[in-house]
Each structure stands twice: as structure tokens, then as C-alpha cells.
Design brief:
- The complex is a heterodimer.
- In chain A, β26 and β27 form a beta hairpin.
- In chain A, 40% of the residues lie in helices and 19% in strands.
- Chain A is α+β, with helices and mostly antiparallel strands.
- Among the domains of chain A are: 103 residues, Beta-Lactamase; 160 residues, Beta-Lactamase, CATH 3.30.450.270; 79 residues; 158 residues, Histidine kinase-like ATPase, C-terminal domain (Heat Shock Protein 90, 2-Layer Sandwich).
- Chain B is α/β, with parallel strands linked by helices.
- Chain B has a single domain, classed as Rossmann fold, CATH 3.40.50.2300.
- Chain B contains 5 helices and 5 strands, in the order βαβαβαβαβα.
- The mean pLDDT of chain B is 87.
- Classes of the chains: A alpha+beta, B alpha/beta.
- The interface between A and B is medium-sized, with 22 and 18 residues.
Chain lengths: 784, 149
């Protein structure tokens, strides 16, 4: 038996052997046992009816009998041969035919069986309820023993079916949720029919079914929540359920009765029995029921917009009868259920969607508060809340954020690369990839089927590689299957293991391997909506960064303006002070030493303040101008730096050794020169040795690039000052020691080096000397 | 030795102390030329316009401070260089700022020399003395524009 799961719509594969009834008419009685494939069974033309009733097929015009069931003798006391070709008056009588004509003329009987009348009991023949419908131009008369005749000799008063149905409809309308609605429907159908078990059976997208509501007799094991493979209700059966509201099988053990002749002489085709209540049941279905111990079944269809949403499946453990009134009541309930279910489903879908959206809104609100997407996986609520999934992962800011059960990161990386190339991701309006079998599309997922058979994936933003994904486990892992051999003893049917629960389950297990429950449209829509919210958030974040950058640029400009003001507006009064101090000093008496000392101090302070203002101005300017990267020959640069400090070198004769040759680096020439000049100037300045030495060199280093150094044998830096030497205007010595200075030199060095994405540090032994080291990361970002 | 050019030097300077320093430097250099002051850029431009209207000779040299109230030194520089008659008049900027942007601006707009104004009084005097010695002693100046009808 092949697995119809793989492709519901396909006809039997060409490789299948020819059908046993090829060239003739199918009959359950003759061919039913030879079937190997449920999907190939011609269930609409079974050629047989259930034995408890009889069938007459007549020409609507002259009521000539065209076909009869082989058991007419039991019901009418005539053999088929005696009836074929005769007018139907032979069995119905004049009154019966008059009534039949009336119904055919006045009622919508095309493919719609309607009650005609009850044929009274005669001699050994029981009273029969007659229904009629038209199909393919012939009238089909179905005759079934009345319920009264089948019951005890003292019949109980008929229940008030109208009142029962009316009450049922009222209760169903009061349901608040879909589950509650289904439960009420099951209970009401059971109240109406009195059957042992009534289940609402919902089809999933892959047509496997799930018992979503159940009403049962005390003592029976509950089947609520069980899933059944799609083979249990094969495609031809589902097609019939789309056309009829109700399918009675009051006694599964009954033999079937063949039509005589099998081919209708008027249509030259087998009779289409889709709408017949007496339609013979497939051998496989009967076996299936018997394997479960079920003796009678009644199946109602639940249709939403012409599609089969589910069934109300009723089981009874003893043979029974479904009188016409009960069937009519059930049919009405099935229709009402279908109509009301539509809005219940829509409401449920809406609620689910609103719940998803509400949770997503909260997730986004938290993330925007944090200015970070991390809370979407580590916060509460997170991506796993509300969404019916067991794992979620998000790739953002160059890393994975995971919650729940997900494949390991190396696998996620591979998945991400594969997803980026999916055409679904390029869809401009709905960029989403959803699958219930990831391993089918992406063999790389084979190792993770247990946790990641189902995948819902969306690209995040335009940047490639940023994704958000949800995972669903393989269904076998999560769903409880009806027919699981571990639940029941192995039963082999009379016709071999074709449709035993065990066989069915094995088939099913095979077909649902690597599969998850499919994603429904609400989930996909909600995910797409969440994606937009995240993108908005990311854009908002980028906007905010832009604003901050603009603010920084503005404040840099303000700093520029401030530095300018500082250099001019502060210097002007300073110049005046210097001038008056000078003039006062000139006019002071030569012997007024105290006044002269004070005026000289005043002059010195103005100059000190002048140099501080210059440093401040210089420092602010260093940060504002853009670096100009070029290949810089450090031999030239160091030579230029030595030129700059030439004046000081004359004041303090020092032996300067420069390693030769120095390398060429990618850097800003002016800035690197200033770094060297500042460090050399410090080395020259802070030295009290009789023989002063400076060594300039570098050591190649694999990780940081070259490490440059300027080493002196000077005074060194005491340990307690080592953390503050780079601070602005921090001077470690009196302003008259070591030639003074503003204290900005090392601050500027540090800034220049960090603009090259390098680092500066030093080693020092007080009294012996200091070595400053710095790196220049090559190809550093040119933005300040 | 040529005779020192006669005429006047126009000093655009809002600071009284700084202008006084200019006068002191001129005295020490025994400049024969008159020193006139414009405290703002606007006053400078009015003075030049008056010269033109009354057909008097323009200044031999303009000493221009960049940061003057109202129209600053930059605007004055542009206005002078935009005037056909005054285009050749020597202008020397004396500013506290050593900002490269200011230097660029001034040289782009045809200044003849740019000096930073030292805070130290003796250095300030020295700078002014250099300017006077050079521009009024060494340099052969263009003939001052004569406003002839």
C-alpha cells in the first residue's frame, strides 16, 4: 500500500496494476476485498447497498423499474426478475405512485433525498419508509424499515425532534470559544441520536484529523485529543462528505446487497450513490470500524465555504437504526453547526491573532525601552510566548539570540545562509518562508528534525543575514496518535493487515517523519506584522543614533566656537593685563623689590594662562579635523619631529638614537609627527641626568601591528601618578621645574593615537627612565 | 635711501589697550606717518568711503584686527578687496587667532600678511615694530590711490 499522505490529489500511480473491475462495473461484493489502495476505491458507485433496506431505481416519466437491489424479495416479496421492467405501481400501489409523483413534481429532489411516505406492512413484509431523489436523470427510491417496526411491539411515543433540535441550536449559540462550541455540538448530536460516542473531528491542513470534542457513554475510553492519519478518511470519502450532510451505517456487520443489473440501462453507467443513505460501505471502512469494535456509525459533515472543516463522527457499539426523523434532525444540526462554526472559527482566529499581536506589541515596547532587541528572546514575554512554537532564534547585531529548543548555532548559521538565498525572502510584500517539513527543502536540517521540522522564517530588515525564526518539533514527538500500537493490542482484520490500527499507524509514522504541524495563516500574518514592528524599531534606533551623531557634531562645532572665543576673547584682556604689569614694572622704583617681584609674577601668570589657552585650543582642534590616511615613512616623520624640538635639544644636549630603518605605516602624517614630537619633547624635558639619552624604535608584533617606543633615561614617573599622566593639564612637577609646560602633551598624544585605533602606554622606573609605547592600527576607520 | 612715504596708517582695533600699544610702537619707531583708528569694521569702511568722496588719499597701510564688533575684520577685508580703487592697498592682519581656517580665509581674500597678536606686552611691541619697519621702511609701497576726478 503506498502512502497517500505524500500527495493527496494524485490518482493512483501509473505503475499500479489495472483495476480489477476495469471494463465492467464495480461492486463491493465482487471487488471490495481485492482493493489495495483506499484512494482508488470508487466509493460513489459501490454497486451495493446495505442489507437492511431495499432500493428501486425507476424512470421518472413512466415509473418503469430500471434497477433493484437483489434483496427486494425480503422487503417486497418479489424477485428482481419479477420487478425489472415493470411499472413501480407493482410494489407501491396507486396511492404510493400518486404521492411519489407529487413529491417529484413539487419538491427539490435533485440530489436531495426526501421522505415520500411510509409503505404499510403487509404479511411478512415490514412497514417501509420511502425516500426519493433524482440523480443523472433517474429516480432513486430508498426503502428502509420504519423505526417503529424495528422497535418493540409496544412502541414508545416519538421524541419531539423539533424541540430537541431547537434546544440544541440555542445551546450552540451560547458558546464562547471554538472548543466550547464543538463540545456543545458533540453533546447535542449525542442527545439527539443516543449513540455511544460522538466526536467532533477536525481536519488539519495535511488532512490528518484530531478529535477536538467528544461526548460519550460512561465507561468508554476517551479519544479526545487523539490524532488520526489522513488515510483513515481517504480522499474519495472526503470528496463525498463535501456533497452530503450525513452518512448512516446502522450495522457495519451487515452484508451488502448488489444492484440488478449493475449498469443502469437508462444511463448506461453504474448508479451514482453519493446521496444514498443506503449506499454500501467500503470493505475497508467496515473493517476499520470493526477493528475498533464499532458496530454502527453516523457521520455528519462540517463544511466551511464548501471545504470540509471536519466531521461529527458518531460510533455505536451495537447495531442500531437511524430513523428518517433522526437523520433529518442530525442533518439540520450539521448545517447549523457548519454555519455557526464559520463565525466561531473566525472569532477564534481573531482571538489568537489578537493575542499574538498583543504579546508582540509588549515585546516591541520592551525592546524599544531597552533600545535593544535582546529582550525579545531573554525577556518576558518573549518570541515564544503566544506563538505556538517550541523554539525561536533571532540573528541580529552579529549574533544569535535563542529561546526554547533550537538547533545549535553552527546549524543555525547554515540555515541562515540557505534562507538568504530563498526566493520567498525576496518577496517585497510578504517575505516569509514557512514549512512543515524543513528537512524536505533543506537537507541540512536532517539532524534537527526532532526539534526543527517546522520552520517559520522572516528576514529582518534589508541587511542580509538578519533573520527571525520559529521552530516546531516533528509531530511524532508531540502528537498523540490514535491507533498507536502501544495503546492497543494488535488486531488483524478478516482481510489481512491492510487497515488494522497497527498497519495504519506504521504507515502514518512513516509519512509524518520529518514533519511538523503546519503554520496557520494567522501565525504567518502575525509574524509578518512583528517583522514590520522590529524593522520600525531598528529604523527608529538608527534615527536616534543619527540624532545623537548630529548632536555630537553640533556640540563639536560649539566646542570649536568656544575654543575660538577662548583664544580671542580671553586673550585680549590677558594682553591688557600683561601690558599694564609691564608698564607698572617700568615705572616702579628700582628699590621697591616687593612690588617688582609681584609685577613680575603677574607677567609670568599671564604667559602661563596664555599657554594653557593655546593647549586647550589645540586639543579641541585635534579632535575635529578628519584624519588623512596615507603611507607614511616614519624615518622622515621622526626626522621632522626632531626638527620641531630642535630648540629644546639645544637647551638640553641629549644623545638621540633612532632605530634604522623605521617602517612605513598607513597613518595621518601630521598626527603621527605630533605624537613623536610630544613624546620626544617630554623625554628631553624630564631628564636630570648628566648624560641624557633617548632611544626611538619599534618591535614588530603580530597581533597589534608594530609597537613603537620612545625611551629615555630621565626622572621616570612615580607609580602613584601613573594613572593620571594622560589627564588634561595634569602636571606632575612645579611649573618652573623641567621647563614648565601646559600638561596637555600626553593628553593630545593619547587622543591622536586613539584616533588611529591604537593604544598608548608606558613603563617607568622612577629615577631610571620611562618608555612610552604606542600602536597605530593600520587601515583604521577615518571617521573621528 | 628714499624718503619715507607720507600719508597715514589706518588701525582697525576695538581694544583701547591694544590701540595704545600700537601708538607706543609707532612712537618708539618714530614713524612720521599719522596713525588713525577705526574701532569697528563699519567705522573703517565709512572712513575709506569718506576718503573716496572727499578725494583724499587712502591709507598707506591698514592694520586689521579680525574680531572687531559689528562687521568684523573678514567683512572689512572682503569689502576692501572688492573695491577696484582699494584693491592694491596693503592690508596686514593682526589677530589673536592662529586658527588655520582664519589664516586660509585671509590669504584667500588677498591679505598681504598675517601676524598673531602675542599676549606678552614686549612681544606685542616687537611684532608691531617689525610690521612698521618692514611695511613702512623696507617695502616699496604701491602709490596710494589718488582720488582724482
Amino acid at each position: 500500500m503506498k502512502t497517500p499522505y505524500a500527495d493527496h490529489a494524485s490518482n493512483p500511480a501509473p505503475a499500479d496494476p489495472p483495476l480489477p473491475w476495469a471494463g465492467g462495473a464495480y461492486s463491493i461484493k465482487r471487488h471490495g476485498v481485492s482493493l489495495t489502495n483506499c484512494d482508488s476505491e470508487p466509493v460513489q458507485t459501490p454497486g451495493c447497498i446495505q442489507a437492511h433496506g431495499a432500493m428501486l431505481v425507476v424512470q421518472p416519466g413512466d415509473f418503469t423499474i430500471l434497477q433493484v437491489s437483489e434483496n427486494v424479495g425480503v422487503h417486497f416479496g418479489r424477485t428482481p426478475e419479477e420487478l425489472l421492467g415493470q411499472p413501480v405501481t407493482t410494489v407501491l400501489g396507486e396511492e404510493g405512485v400518486r404521492r411519489l409523483r407529487q413529491v417529484l413534481d413539487r419538491e427539490p429532489v435533485e440530489r436531495n433525498p426526501l421522505y415520500v411516505f411510509t409503505l404499510p406492512a403487509r404479511k411478512a413484509n415490514p412497514a417501509l419508509d420511502l425516500t426519493v431523489h433524482l440523480v443523472d436523470g433517474v429516480a432513486v427510491l430508498e426503502c428502509e424499515p420504519t423505526a417503529r417496526a424495528a422497535a418493540e411491539p409496544e412502541p414508545e411515543p416519538e421524541p419531539d425532534y423539533y424541540a430537541l433540535v431547537k434546544r440544541s441550536v440555542g445551546r450552540m449559540q451560547s458558546a464562547q470559544t471554538l472548543a466550547e462550541f464543538c463540545q456543545i455540538a458533540a453533546e447535542q448530536v449525542r442527545a439527539l441520536t443516543g449513540l455511544d460516542r460522538v466526536m467532533v473531528y477536525r481536519f488539519h491542513e495535511d488532512f490528518h484529523g484530531e478529535v477536538v470534542a467528544e461526548s460519550k457513554r460512561e465507561g468508554l475510553t476517551s479519544w479526545l485529543g487523539l490524532h488520526y492519519p489522513s488515510e483513515d478518511i481517504p480522499r474519495p470519502a472526503r470528496e463525498i462528505f463535501k456533497k452530503i450532510w450525513l452518512r448512516p451505517l446502522p450495522d457495519a456487520a451487515e452484508p451488502v446487497m448488489e444492484l440488478v443489473p449493475l449498469i443502469n440501462p437508462a444511463t448506461q453507467r453504474p448508479l451514482n450513490m453519493t446521496h444514498c443513505a443506503l449506499r454500501g460501505a467500503s470493505v475497508m471502512y467496515v473493517e476499520y470500524l470493526q477493528n475498533m469494535g464499532v458496530a454502527a456509525s453516523l457521520t455528519l459533515s462540517i463544511l466551511i465555504e464548501g471545504e470540509l472543516w471536519g466531521l461529527i463522527a458518531c460510533h455505536h457499539y451495537t447495531p442500531t437504526r437511524f430513523p428518517y426523523q433522526v437523520r433529518a434532525g442530525c442533518e439540520f444540526l450539521a448545517q447549523v453547526t457548519s454555519l455557526q462554526l464559520r463565525s466561531a472559527v473566525q472569532r477564534e482566529t481573531l482571538h489568537y491573532r489578537l493575542r499574538l499581536e498583543e504579546v508582540h506589541n509588549r515585546i516591541i515596547a520592551q525592546a524599544s525601552l531597552d533600545l535593544d532587541l535582546a529582550s525579545m528572546t531573554i525577556g518576558s514575554p518573549n518570541l515564544l510566548n503566544a506563538m505556538d512554537a517550541t523554539g525561536a532564534a533571532m540573528y541580529h547585531s552579529d549574533r544569535w539570540w535563542r529561546v526554547g529548543a533550537t538547533p545549535e548555532e553552527a546549524h543555525l548559521d547554515a540555515l541562515k545562509i540557505w534562507l538568504d538565498a530563498r526566493p520567498e525572502f525576496q518577496n517585497p510584500t510578504r517575505p516569509v518562508y514557512a514549512t512543515d517539513s524543513l528537512a524536505r527543502d533543506f537537507p541540512g536540517a536532517a539532524d534537527d528534525v526532532a526539534i526543527a521540522s517546522g520552520l517559520l522564517a522572516l528576514p529582518l530588515a534589508r541587511r542580509k543575514g538578519n533573520v527571525i525564526v520559529w521552530f516546531r518539533p516533528e509531530t511524532i514527538q508531540t502528537v498523540k496518535w490514535g491507533g498507536d500500537p502501544s495503546d492497543k493490542p494488535i488486531v488483524t482484520g478478516p482481510h489481512g493487515p491492510r487497515l488494522t490500527p497497527r498497519k495504519s499507524f506504521e504507515l502514518f509514522t512513516e509519512s509524518v517523519r520529518q514533519r511538523a504541524l503546519p503554520w496557520n495563516p494567522s501565525e504567518i500574518d502575525a509574524a509578518l506584522r512583528l517583522r514590520l514592528l522590529i524593522m520600525e524599531l531598528v529604523v527608529t534606533r538608527a534615527d536616534r543614533l543619527r540624532e545623537v551623531n548630529a548632536d555630537l557634531t553640533r556640540s563639536n562645532e560649539e566646542l570649536d566656537a568656544f575654543a575660538y572665543v577662548a583664544s580671542h576673547d580671553l586673550k585680549e584682556p590677558l594682553r591688557g593685563i600683561s601690558k599694564y604689569a609691564h608698564q607698572l614694572l617700568e615705572s616702579a622704583f628700582a628699590d621697591d623689590v616687593e612690588t617688582r617681584t609681584r609685577l613680575e609674577g603677574l607677567q609670568r601668570l599671564t604667559l602661563r594662562m596664555d599657554s594653557l589657552l593655546d593647549s586647550l585650543l589645540h586639543y579641541s582642534r585635534v579632535g575635529r579635523t578628519t584624519l588623512q590616511f596615507e603611507n607614511v615613512d616614519l624615518n622622515e616623520v621622526v626626522a621632522e619631529a626632531l626638527e620641531i624640538v630642535a630648540a629644546r635639544r639645544q637647551e638640553t644636549p641629549t644623545e638621540i638614537n633612532v632605530a634604522s630603518p623605521l617602517p612605513t605605516v598607513l597613518a595621518d602624517r601630521m598626527r603621527v609627527r605630533e605624537v613623536f614630537a610630544n613624546l620626544i619633547a617630554n623625554a628631553l624635558k624630564y631628564n636630570d641626568k648628566p648624560h641624557r639619552e633617548i632611544h626611538i624604535g619599534y618591535s614588530p608584533d603580530g597581533v597589534q601591528g608594530n609597537v613603537f617606543h620612545v625611551r629615555d633615561n630621565g626622572i621616570g614617573i612615580e607609580a602613584r601618578h601613573q594613572t593620571t599622566v594622560f589627564n588634561m593639564f595634569k602636571r606632575l612637577h612645579g611649573r618652573n621645574e623641567f621647563g614648565g609646560g601646559s600638561g596637555a602633551g600626553l593628553t593630545i598624544v593619547e587622543k591622536l593615537v586613539s584616533q588611529h585605533r591604537g593604544r598608548v602606554l608606558f613603563e617607568s622606573t622612577p629615577g631610571e627612565g620611562t618608555t612610552f609605547f604606542f600602536t597605530l592600527a593600520p587601515g583604521a576607520d577615518t571617521t573621528p | 635711501m628714499t624718503l619715507p612715504p607720507t600719508g597715514f596708517v589706518l588701525v582697525v582695533e576695538d581694544s583701547d589697550e591694544d590701540f595704545d600699544t600700537v601708538l607706543q610702537a609707532a612712537r618708539e619707531a618714530s614713524l612720521p606717518q599719522e596713525i588713525r583708528r577705526a574701532a569697528t569694521g563699519g567705522e573703517c569702511l565709512r572712513l575709506l568711503a569718506d576718503c573716496e568722496r572727499e578725494r583724499r588719499t587712502a591709507p598707506l597701510l591698514v592694520l586689521l584686527d579680525l574680531n572687531t564688533p559689528g562687521e568684523d575684520g573678514r567683512a572689512v577685508l572682503r569689502a576692501i578687496r572688492g573695491n577696484g580703487q582699494l584693491r592694491t592697498m596693503p592690508i596686514v592682519v593682526l589677530s589673536t587667532s592662529d586658527n588655520p581656517r582664519d589664516l586660509d580665509f585671509c590669504y584667500q581674500n588677498g591679505v598681504n600678511a598675517y601676524h598673531t597678536k602675542p599676549v606678552s606686552f614686549p612681544a606685542h611691541l616687537r611684532t608691531l615694530r617689525c610690521i612698521f619697519d618692514y611695511w613702512l621702511g623696507s617695502v616699496v609701497l604701491p602709490a596710494a590711490p589718488q582720488h582724482i576726478p
